[in-house]
Amino acid sequence: MRRLLMVIALAVCIGGGTGSGGAAAQAVIDGWSWSILVPSYTQTDVLGSHLRELMNRDAQRDMPPPDVSALRYTPSKARRSANLSAFVERTRAVDPNGAADLQRLFADGDIIEKIAALIAPHGLRVDNLADAYALWWVTAWQATRGDNDTLGHDVMAAVRAQAARALNDAGGPARASDAQKQELAEALLVQTALIDGAVEQAKGNPVRMRQVRAAVSNGAQRMGLDMARMELTGGGFVPGGGR
User: Fold this and answer.
1) Distance, CA of 231 to CA of 127 (rounded, Å)
2) What CA–CA distance (Å, rounded) separates 198 from 192?
3) Cα(125)–Cα(79) distance, integer angstroms
4) Which has the minimum average pLDDT: 31-35, 66-70, 115-119, 131-135?
5) Mean pLDDT to the nearest integer, 213-234
6) Which of 94, 124, 203, 211 to pair with 75, CA 20 to 30 A apart?
7) Region label for 123, one of left (φ > 0), alpha (ψ between -120 and 50) or beta (otherwise)
8) Closest CA to 214 of 87, 32, 30
9) CA distances (Å), 156 to each of 1, 64, 135, 139, 235, in order?
10) What is the per-residue pLDDT for 16?
11) Full-model pTM
12) How many helices (H) and strands (E) does the chain have?
């Protein structure tokens, strides 16, 4: 979602990345950026199975708008600070240099508030799990195609509805506390920024782009999603691909 998150992508570039790919691209390729995801309560393999089932159902019939009320949470600045610190520490355990890049990014202002301002015109909010998951899902899928263009409101609304249904069906996320919802949403949003930055930095470098595409595909599979077996349409994700 290039025009949504370019400010964040540039911050990652400035945050200490070296070489031809930059910090965000290296983070995604090396795999440490996935260490910030995902709190254990989310049971991402279960969520992935709900998303796969949902795509099959959506391909067969229209569905009523989902209830997103249980996926909202009241953000806390104190929790956000604790979450971002925890993301850095999780990263430090697998890549100290990556943790330093992440720490520099977080020190350059409130990254979540920056994302909030950028996605608001597109009808998305940072205080709802469905919005955060939809943004991550679209960004990751696009990355596996070497793309990060901003999509239309209708497409994002359709994916948001799919994400909301799957999160509600999975049970755990909807029943989680505000603190747990905030941790997951902010992890997804930071991960989205890193993926978006990785794609942007890899443009013009085919070798690096192939590495980013493969790394995002592998990371998504760990969350229960095979990005190669879905396509994005005006009505959201549908089964397809298989490449």
Assistant:
1) 27
2) 10
3) 17
4) 31-35
5) 89
6) 94
7) left
8) 30
9) 11, 16, 8, 11, 9
10) 46
11) 0.86
12) 11, 2
Bridge partner residues of 232 (DSSP): 237
Write out the two tokens for 195: 């993926």
Q: What is the distance between the alpha carbons of residues 217 and 235, in angstroms, rounded to a whole number? A: 22
Residues in the chain: 243
Sign of the CA dihedral running 227, 230, 232, 236:
negative
Mean pLDDT for 119-141 is 93
Distance, CA of 139 to chain centre: 6
Tokens 């709802």, residue? 128
Percent of the chain with pLDDT over 70: 74
For 35-73, b where at least 16 C-beta lie within 10 A, e where not — what string?
A: bbbbbeebbbebbbbbbbebbeebeeeeeeebebebbbb
Amino acid at 130: A
Tokens of 20: 């031809």
What tokens appear for 138 in the block?
A: 């679209």
Q: Looking at 55-59, 137-141, 214-218, 225-229, which range is the least confident one?
A: 55-59
Q: What is the mean pLDDT of residues 11-27?
A: 52
Helix (H, G, I), strand (E, B) or coil at 213: helix
